[in-house]
Amino acid sequence: MLSATLCGVSLDNPTILASGILGVSKLGVARMGREGAGAVTLKSLCHEERKGHPAPNMFVIDDGMLNAVGLPGQGIDNAVKEFGRLDDLPVPVIGSIFGYKIADFGIVAEKMASLKPAMIEVDVSCPHMDYDTPFYADSSALAKITKLVKKKAKGIPVSLKLSPNVPNIAELAQSCEKAGADCITAINTASAMKIDIEVRKPILGNKVGGLSGPALKPIAVRCVYEIFGAVKIPIIGTGGVSDGKDAIEMIMAGATAVGIGTAAYYRGPEVFRRVTDEMKAWMKEHGVSALDEIRGAAYK
Amino acid sequence: MSLKTELPKIFTVNRVVDEAKGHKSIFLSGALDCKPGQFVMVWIPEVEEKPMAVSEAGPEEFGFCYHTLGPFTQACDKLKPGDKIGIRGPYGNGFSVREHALVVGGGVGMSSVSALIDALKDPLIINGARDKEHLLYLERFKGKNMALCTDDGSFGKKGFATDALREVLSAHPEIRVVYTCGPELMMKKVVDLCNERKIDCEASVERYMKCGFGICGNCLINDRIICTEGPVFSGLRLAEMSEFGQSARLKTGRKVPLSEYYGWRA
After folding, report:
1. Distance from CA of B47 to the nearest CA of A (A)
2. In angstroms, how far is CA A49 from the centroid of its own chain?
3. Could you tell me if B194 and B200 are in contact, meaning their C-beta atoms sit under 8 angstroms apart?
4. Is residue A202 domain-resident?
5. A114 in reach of chain B (CB within 8 A)
6. Residue B113 Cα, gap to closest chain A Cα (Å)
7. Residue B128 in contact with residue B182, Cβ under 8 Å?
8. Whole-angstrom Cα distance, residue B161 to residue A99?
9. Residue B265 forms contact with A (CB below 8 Å)
10. Rg of the Cα trace of chain B?
11. Beta A39-41 vs A58-61: how paired, if at all?
């Protein structure tokens, strides 16, 4: 009932663990598979080992989460050593990569491809990462990165993860599609800040961070809807999906698969099974037998 | 779905106590509803945020104890009554509180079991440290049945807490549960011995963590999430976790042998 095909990759269900949440180790990935995720995205890796930003790195506000973890990671070389391969796990794995300069993306993509992930996701959109230039808002830079990663990915499908902090996300998605992207992941977090009024300072160590969770969902739904109208490649709709109805809404906006991250806080690691159960219940109640029947239903 | 917040709440430092060489406790005014073995995220504005075990919790104040090592604990050393810091939590599962208990604490790990000792009925205690100057809570737990040991023999018995554990277990067959916190290799020995002798055991483990609420993934041991599913695990569960006593992840997420991890933490 929930099976989906994303860029030729068969998923038992369309829920995908979003990057940056729990996807640090192979044992962690395998567990998210057992918890019911249709696919699991690794925490992003770049060409070097990074400590990330000083803490506080993350906390929860009224209706969302703020984080400025700062893309810590062991680096692709250490990850290649630790993981060996990614196609021997019981769940499809999406390898998330980033770099500082455009050329870095190619180096990391080639090494990630050697691990044989089901897909490669390209994080060009972290709102608190000091990229060389703000790739996320520059269609020609996005096209260059897409072409480079595609070349190095050796046939592994490539998804570009886009930022909501732009005025023209649909156009940027089109640039990626034209450059050969197989998929769009939309969206990354929204640039945000929280100030503690007792101490009169921003709480995040990095001061600025990214907003995720329920407060982000209307923005994500709007972005997915706009991208769906602009491209033919599939979309991983990510941003604030916490329950089955949220997932259905994201699919009606045009998503083929649905990213889940912050909801693992609200509902625990078992969030995947809970969301898919709720999706099935909704579908039964509404006489929907396959997600294709409702995909993009809002865009008519 | 009910939404909750995990924002630091601002508390005022009430008093600072010198506990032992290099060890201090910070007490904050106000009550914190927490169980023995739970921890909080302590935020010193414009410095950093770190997890700390709650070492004491009363109706009017609560506190944590630390060993000064790096920039964060050096910033803790500068705190004085009246300063304001942020607290998130409490987090983690905490210890069960049962009768006929033996508590084994090593070094600053004593602070993670000290609220438990307050809650237990007549526990036996083994308190170990590298030398006399580093022993915690000699005054606080005076009058309790506490065996002291030091690595160099400068106070109490010479030897490791695990040596004392064998003796105490043999002398006290009534012991039904062993609680422990300390260096991980010490805890591994405690856990192995308890499992061998089929005595229930609970150990509080430590890993570098960023969120405290089960999201960042840095604190995993095997596939267990330490901040939400721990930090306290049963001896039987720990026996299934092959990375316990073996490896941990640095701030970057790179997995290293425990010795390298402790070298970085120090």
Report:
1. 8
2. 21
3. yes
4. no
5. no
6. 26
7. yes
8. 48
9. no
10. 18
11. unpaired
What is the distance of C-alpha A255 from the center of its chain?
A: 12
Domain of residue A140: give its range. 4-55+69-193+213-293
Among the partner-chain residues B211, B225, B252, the one whose CB lies closest to the CB of A74 is B252
Alpha helices by DSSP H, B105-183: 110-119, 161-171
Residue A8 lies in a domain: yes
Q: Is residue A208 part of a domain?
A: no
> How much is the ipTM here?
0.91
Q: Is B266 on the interface with A (CB under 8 A)?
A: no
Residue from A199, A201, A267 whose CB has the most chain B CBs within 10 Å, to mutate: A199
Cβ neighbours of residue A291 closer than 8 Å, sequence gap 6 or more: A2, A4, A14, A251
Q: Kindly tell me the sign of the dihedral angle through the C-alpha atoms of B125, B130, B136, B142.
A: positive
Domains of chain B: 9-91 (2.40.30.10), 101-265 (3.40.50.80)
- The pairing of strands B157-158 and B177-181 is unpaired
Catalytic residues of A, by residue number, are 126
Beta-carbon contacts of residue A43 (< 8 Å; ≥ 6 apart): A19, A20, A21, A23, A24, A73, A96, B217, B253
Helix B184-196 × helix B258-265 angle, to 10°: 140
CATH at A121? 3.20.20.70
Domain annotation covers residue A159? yes
Interface of A with B in 155-194 (CB under 8 A): 194
Instruction: Find all residues with CB under 8 Å of A16, minimum gap 6, and list them.
Output: A37, A38, A39, A40, A41, A94, A236, A238, A257, A258, A259, A260
Window A:3-42, CB contacts with B under 8 Å: 21-25, 27-28, 30-31
Which residues from A are below 8 Å from B225, CB to CB?
Answer: 22, 269
pLDDT tens by residue, B125-178: 999 999 999 999 999 999 999 999 999 999 999 988 888 999 999 999 999 999
pLDDT in tens, A154-164: 999 999 999 99
The structure's pTM equals: 0.94
Number of domains in chain A: 1
